[in-house]
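Quick one: structure tokens for this chain, please?
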Amino acid sequence: MRLLFVCLGNICRSPAAETIMRHKLRDAGLEATVAVDSAGTASYHCGELPDPRTRVSLQRRGYRDWSRARQVTPDDFRNFQHILAMDRQNLRELKRLCPDPAYWDKVRLIGDFVQTRKELEVPDPYYGSPDDFELVLDILEDACSSLIEMLQGGAPPPRREGG
């Protein structure tokens, strides 16, 4: 199984989702069977580490590993079973970038997996406050826990509005 988390620049939300998911996969004993990556729909930050504010927020919660930013490629649509957009704008952009509409069913909002919160989209914290980065992690921890349940044999949640 391969999961790809996607936001705009791949320096705030999607690398946070990747880091959280890797940690949860290790805790669940699934790291050998599930591959996780993240990417951006834009190339603004390719090669960069996650935003320092994202790293600080992750470190406060005990998360320590992260990757470097990259842009979504056509191969991603072939190689990943689940491509999870952080918001509707990136969902639309993923469908535009998709090399074949046959892959569209792989693309959905990460908000489809949020169980204990009301958010459907993960807001972009880039121009926000430290509290905005914490909110992003709250939403992503919820969604990643739901993803772990699905990977352990639970049914995927239905697509919600816009997903």
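The mean pLDDT is 94.
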